[in-house]
């Protein structure tokens, strides 16, 4: 049996983030991450499949919180309100982690492969939310639309939270995003653009005699 390493996952994650910022994501190796954390490569691969996964640890906990919150929502709650409550339940995961989240976001913006992995994560969370809604008896396409709309709100709210000079809570940005979504969906459809005026026919040319 391998020797127990206290807080190994957190130490590896912190070491990786530090090295990504110091040397760049592409130039950092698993060997360097393990060495900075005072651990072995074998220990690293016990927790992560590769260095990319270091930036996406905790996704399972988010998935579980979304599913549990939707399942425990009051009977008769509107689907979008149920998803909103699930998203708000994620806010405590990010409390006091704004600086870390900003550093992580900078890495995502700089590397297409990381942005792709982030989109996969968000799609997985939306799928989990839709499955949980269907388990409550919400039909399609309402379940999928509510889940996808909610995840879009979360993405925008999260980015605003990172950039907010007032440092307001993520919950506040989620509420603002949901209010904006409801305002958009409640507004009447924009009138179809007027047909452009037809050009007046050119006057016939008079042939000189």
Protein model, in words:
This protein has 209 residues and is mainly alpha-helical. It folds into two domains: 8-51, Orthogonal Bundle (Arc Repressor Mutant, subunit A); 58-185, Orthogonal Bundle (Tetracycline Repressor, domain 2), CATH 1.10.357. Helices cover 62% and strands 0% of the residues. It has nine helices and no strands. It has helices at 8-23, 30-37, 41-47, 59-71, 79-88, 98-110, 112-135, 142-163, 170-186. The longest helix is centred in the middle third of the chain and has 24 residues, at 112-135. It is elongated. The mean pLDDT is 89.
What descriptive keywords fit this protein?
209 residues; 2 domains; Arc Repressor Mutant, subunit A; mainly alpha; 62% helix; 9 helices
Secondary-structure topology with pairs:
Elements: H1 8-23, H2 30-37, H3 41-47, H4 59-71, H5 79-88, H6 98-110, H7 112-135, H8 142-163, H9 170-186
What distance lies between the first and last C-alpha atoms, to the nearest angstrom? Answer: 110 Å
Query: Which overall shape is indicated by the principal axes computed on the Cα atoms?
Result: elongated
Q: What fraction, in percent, of the residue positions are helical?
A: 55-70%
Poorly predicted runs: none
CATH fold annotation of the largest domain: Tetracycline Repressor, domain 2
- Helix-strand topology string: HHHHHHHHH
Radius of gyration: 25 Å
Number of domains: 2
How many strands appear in the DSSP assignment?
Answer: 0
Strand content: under 5%
The residue-averaged pLDDT reads 89
CATH class of the largest domain: Mainly Alpha
The major β-sheet equals: none
CATH superfamily of the largest domain: Tetracycline Repressor, domain 2
Query: Helical element count?
Result: 9
- Quickly give the structural class: mainly alpha
- CATH architecture tag of the largest domain: Orthogonal Bundle
